[in-house]
Amino acid sequence: MYIHIDLEAEEPIYTQLKNQIIAGVARKDLLLGESLPSVRSMASDLGINLHTVNKAYQQLKQEGFILIHRQRGVVINPEGIPQANDEYRKNLQKSLHPLIAEAVCRGVKEEEFNKMVKAIYEELNHIKEDHE
Amino acid sequence: MYIHIDLEAEEPIYTQLKNQIIAGVARKDLLLGESLPSVRSMASDLGINLHTVNKAYQQLKQEGFILIHRQRGVVINPEGIPQANDEYRKNLQKSLHPLIAEAVCRGVKEEEFNKMVKAIYEELNHIKEDHE
Amino acid sequence: MYIHIDLEAEEPIYTQLKNQIIAGVARKDLLLGESLPSVRSMASDLGINLHTVNKAYQQLKQEGFILIHRQRGVVINPEGIPQANDEYRKNLQKSLHPLIAEAVCRGVKEEEFNKMVKAIYEELNHIKEDHE
Amino acid sequence: MYIHIDLEAEEPIYTQLKNQIIAGVARKDLLLGESLPSVRSMASDLGINLHTVNKAYQQLKQEGFILIHRQRGVVINPEGIPQANDEYRKNLQKSLHPLIAEAVCRGVKEEEFNKMVKAIYEELNHIKEDHE
DNA sequence: GTGGTCTAGACCACC
DNA sequence: GTGGTCTAGACCACA
Questions:
Q1: Are D37 and D53 in contact (CB under 8 A)?
Q2: Quick check: B7 and C72 CB within 8 A?
Q3: Which of A80, A117, C40, C65 has the fewest C-beta atoms under 10 angstroms from its C-beta?
Q4: In a 3-state reduction of DSSP, which class is residue D12?
Q5: pLDDT, tens digit (0-9, with 9 covering 90-100), for B60-113
Q6: SS3 state of residue D122
């Protein structure tokens, strides 16, 4: 799966990496049980430090997206990603609230907002027929 | 309008302040042209640093939410908040994308997601009969 | 609170630090809400790297023992430590099992084992009248 | 005796193997003088590396649990496991201390802790009528 | 001043 | 080869 890191962006590198891996899982570019590159090879692929990759991996592990084996490297959690629970929903609500508040101020109606959401859902669910 | 700052939260204080003012505008607790406390009084009301309030105000000014006059103090932009443009929509899309990607991984369907969005829209649109 | 780090020990430094802080909380050398030294001062006090201290602090934060504020440093969780839940009990059971299996092999009866447990509980509960 | 290795676990494989053999001895699934599979066959049974089994065996030998003869293979120490001495007790105390410190912090009283210990002792002492 | 992020380079445990 | 630990030193965001 192709990962693009913007070294100039404000968003921390490890966060960009995390989000792209999560997006990869969401759109099934990364299948359950599939291997991820080792910290070292991911780091050299992306031209970043291995500790930065490690930080992203550790957090993904913590959140249940991946398993890290001492020897066999890193795999997408073969048992699936932990499903939404109350704590997650509460955090999602907290993240969403300021985005919607600003949208309201700027005249974005619920209908338009839902269209944006729909577009992202569709992008993620879009079935890839064949890809590298 | 009552503003609550959580000094323990991960979210920077100036961001909390910004978001609550934006939420205040969204739910019309703060009306166009309405005055906001000066940097000094806001800081002392909340028990936080001048610089912190100033940072929040400067960003709100930058984003068109407020005007800062030397004499007349700080007011919600009387001409209204700049409406959504392409840049804003692009940023909103960028903020929304990782939230939805994780939601997909955790089994939150578009329908449930839309319900959360709807709940927040309703909370913000709820008409306040009187408020301080 | 005095903390001793053995640089030669097999146990990682960050683990030693974590355990001594937890022990400090257990025996009320460290009170809820009490401040801990900043990562930098703790590191220089102990003669170790700030990243090592940071790793210990991050894990303690993760496990609910401490709060980390961007500016005001580190404090013992003023709301108290998260109480035992099923997951914690399961892990404790898993940690205990091999210790007891070996004890059985080496002829340590349950009675003697309980005496060791009791001694540690008493050491931790021993009320400190005054100390630095 | 059935041995289960969890390749996903954080615990190193050689440690899992060691602990399960020790547990086998404790619950008399493995009797004094009983043979253990050779390094080679144990490795192929479990689908793990020779070196890994060897490391576990060497440590078990070092700690007096097993004897390794060139010809007669590997047997549980027929003279019995070396009984607890001061050094062992000191190490056990060191292992137990952080577990109990955390238990105290999390509100696990000595009484509950003793119940967990009792349950493990009982599991280990449970007499097996027949086993493979 | 605080913690957060990132880099660079080293050694060790595991397999 | 893998990840885990530790060190050293840098720059930034926050208050």
A1: no
A2: yes
A3: C40
A4: coil
A5: 999 999 999 888 889 999 999 999 999 999 999 999 999 999 999 999 999 999
A6: helix
Sequence length of chain A is: 132
Q: How far is the CA of A7 from the C1' of F2 (A)?
A: 27
| Banded pLDDT at D132 (limits 50, 70, 90) | very low
Q: How far is A63 from chain D (nearest CA, A)?
A: 16
CA distance A101 to C114: 58
* B84, B105, B106: residue with CB nearest A107: B84
C-alpha to C-alpha distances, C104 to A104, C98, D81, nearest whole angstrom: 67, 10, 10
pLDDT of B70 reads: 83
**C1’ F14 / CA D37, Å:** 61
CB contact (8 A) between residue B8 and residue C70: no
Cβ separation A116–B23 shorter than 8 A: no
Q: Any residues with CB less than 8 A from the CB of D94 and at least 6 apart, and which?
A: none
Sheet holding B66-69, edge to edge: B35-36, B73-76, B66-69
Can you spell out the DSSP letters for B68-90?
EETTTEEEE-TT-PPPP-HHHHH
Is residue C38 within 8 Å of residue C28, measured between CB atoms? no
In 3D, which of A89, A73, A88 has the Cα closest to residue A36? A73
Question: Where do the domains of chain A lie, and which CATH numbers do they carry?
Answer: 13-76 (1.10.10.10), 86-131 (no CATH)
Distance of alpha carbon C2 from alpha carbon B125, whole angstroms = 55
What's the pLDDT score for residue C131?
A: 47
pLDDT band per the 50, 70, 90 thresholds, residue C50: very high
Classify residue A111 by burial, with Cβ atoms within 10 Å: 0-12, 13-18, 19+: exposed
Which residues contact residue A90 at a Cβ distance below 8 angstroms, ignoring those fewer than 6 apart?
none
What count of Cα atoms within 13 Å lies in the side-chain half-sphere of residue C103? 26
Strands (E), chain A: 35-36, 66-69, 73-76
Q: In what order do the strands lie in the sheet with A66-69?
A: A35-36, A73-76, A66-69
Across B19-28, average pLDDT: 96
